[in-house]
Amino acid sequence: MIKTKRESLEQFIKEQLIGPGGCKGLYSLKPSASEDENSEELGEVVSTTPGSIYSSAILFPPKKEIKTEGFVEQENSIVTETIETPKDGNDQETELEEITDTSQNDDEDLNSLSRRFPSSMGVSCCLDSGFSNDNDLKIIVSGRYYTKVEQYTRLEVIVEEQEEFESFFKKNADVFNELFVLERNKLSLRHTIPQSQLPSYKENLRALNIKITAEIAQNPDGSVDPIFADVTFKEQYRYFSSYKERLFKNLSSLKGSESYLTVHEAEVIKKRIGSN
């Protein structure tokens, strides 16, 4: 029992620090025409830059000098194999370029930069005095390469509660069908969303969120949960995440008369919290 728990904890720490597994396998990539669906070459798909998820055993693309007429440029050497999904902001590669552009003539700053974004590593070890050159010494080094996905329509989100989500998807087909495809337990884009349409579509999703939250807050008799109807909870901010925070706060606090919630009241709140 103790050994099993220890191994489980070690595996969890490894997934969080060096991966793979930081995103719990919730993202995948549709294979191209030249790739088999079960091919391991597709690798891990993450929702942001690897450096935002993993804090250890990371090497960044090195800078290499390109000599041209009259000046020297630096360029990232890019490696592509395993896939990473894009996300606005928090892009270490861009940050690396910006910092280097302003400090490439300053050796001290470059050394500091290389410590922050290391592109190489070294390994040392001690061998037993009885070890001779005739013995076979094997060192196995493994790793993963990440690159941005260019074809957004190849990205897939794995749906964990398939039946519930399929019902939700069909119920709100007017919002989802135009842009999304649901195939078994995988959700993907039907086509790339034009930049000009993003604000409008985001607003539709926010309105849907508020609508569903209002349904969750409704009691069987048609009345509305006082927590949801509180005047301090402004209508334009009644998203489920905000409502859930208020439910948790109410669940852990005393009622106005300094009495505790009844078992029934607590169960109603827990049911609403678990409705996402």
Comma- or semicolon-separated keywords:
two-stranded antiparallel sheet; extended; 10 helices; alpha+beta; 276 residues; four-stranded antiparallel β-sheet
Q: How is this structure best described in words?
A:
The chain has 10 helices and 8 strands. With 276 residues, the chain is an alpha+beta fold. α3 packs antiparallel against α4 (107-116) and α9 (240-251) runs antiparallel to α10. It starts with a helix and ends with a helix. The model is unreliable at 75-89 (pLDDT under 50).
Number of domains: 2
Uncertain residue ranges: 75-89
**Oligomeric state as shown:** single chain
- The helix/strand class is alpha+beta
Summed up, the helix count is 10
Query: What order do the helices and strands follow?
Result: HEHEEEHHEEHHEEHHHH
What is the CA-CA span between the terminal residues?
34 Å
Helix % is 25-40%
Percent of sequence in beta strands: 5-15%
The major β-sheet equals: 4 strands, antiparallel
Radius of gyration: 26 Å
Report the principal-axis shape: extended
Mean pLDDT figure: 79
